[in-house]
Amino acid sequence: MTLATDILRRPEAVPRPRRPGMRRPADLVRGLPGGVLVAGALIALYLVMAAAPALLQTHPPFRTDLAATLRPPSLDHLFGTDQSGRDLFSRVVEGTRDSLAIGVGATSLSLTLALLLGVTAGLAGGALDRAIGRFLEVMFAFPNLFLALLLITVFEATPVTLIAAVGIGTAPGYARMVRGQFLAVKGAGYVEAARALGHSRLRILRRHILPNAMRPLVAMITLGVGQSIVWASSLAFLGLGVAPPSPEWGALLDAGRNYVTRAWWLEVMPGLAIIVFALSVTVVGRHVQDRLDGRAGTP
């Protein structure tokens, strides 16, 4: 019996061809650092909390029980209870959707404004670039928190106002970064070579400038979400966040600050939820940036 006949009789023994460069999902995961895997798993857990909170909640998040007020963490109440006897763990899970929505919305608004200003300044140059540069310098003269406080003071504190306040407050930093990236790419050697070859401005913009200038924004998106949630929580802690009974993380911090000496868990547990999420997206964002810059090992 020949080898070819044996293979024909046993087709399952013939390995499936794989296209060059293809990797199995298991291979991609196996090459990731342990810290990135843990951070990715935590982000996935937060997404489950936001999409289907009932899967993880141990008690109804809005049910009050005056006989169980300010109970410390236990097996029955993992994060303890608040001043109304509500289960804090369930409320933290319930507030994940609002907190992530504020973070994603503020980051989207901030990046949109940054792209509008940064790309216009970087591509136009001349007087328009100088005008946008002066405007960004004026915006940088005001602290981000001051701009956010100004907007929330003028308008009512709602999730939409928080998104606008945090997004506008963080946009100048992103805009200056985008502008600098576009100016650097415009002067790169490969762009000059494309001009020398007679490529049109539209082709150069589409094939060379945009893909290379937009690369850092991938990591900025992940980092910006965590930063926006921290900013929104800071505003809520100052009493300028979403009004109760919303269990948004910043609102939980604001509600628990009057009981910090009697019930430490009212501040620690929501604070840990914010810190863990911010650290997780930062780790993933840094790893993505390193991979794009070629500084991380290739799996």
Automatic annotation (TrEMBL):
Where does it localize? Answer: Cell membrane
Q: Which UniProt keywords apply?
A: Cell membrane, Membrane, Transmembrane, Transmembrane helix, Transport
Q: Which residues form the signal peptide?
A: none
Q: Does the keyword Disulfide bond apply?
A: no
- Which PROSITE patterns does the record match to this protein? ABC_TM1
User: Where are the bilayer-spanning segments?
Assistant: 28-56, 100-124, 145-168, 217-243, 263-285
According to its UniProt record, where is this protein mainly located? Answer: membrane
The record gives the membrane topology as:
Multi-pass membrane protein
According to the entry, every stretch annotated as the ABC transmembrane type-1 domain falls at 96-285
Give the span(s) annotated as Disordered.
Answer: 1-25
Which InterPro entries does this entry report, sorted A to Z?
BP-dependent_transpt_permease, MetI-like, MetI-like_sf
What the entry lists under PANTHER family is as follows: OLIGOPEPTIDE TRANSPORT SYSTEM PERMEASE PROTEIN APPC, PEPTIDE ABC TRANSPORTER PERMEASE PROTEIN
Q: Which family does it belong to?
A: Belongs to the binding-protein-dependent transport system permease family.
What is the name attached to this protein's record?
D,D-dipeptide transport system permease protein DdpC
Origin organism of this chain?
A: Methylobacterium crusticola
Q: Which gene encodes it?
A: ddpC_2
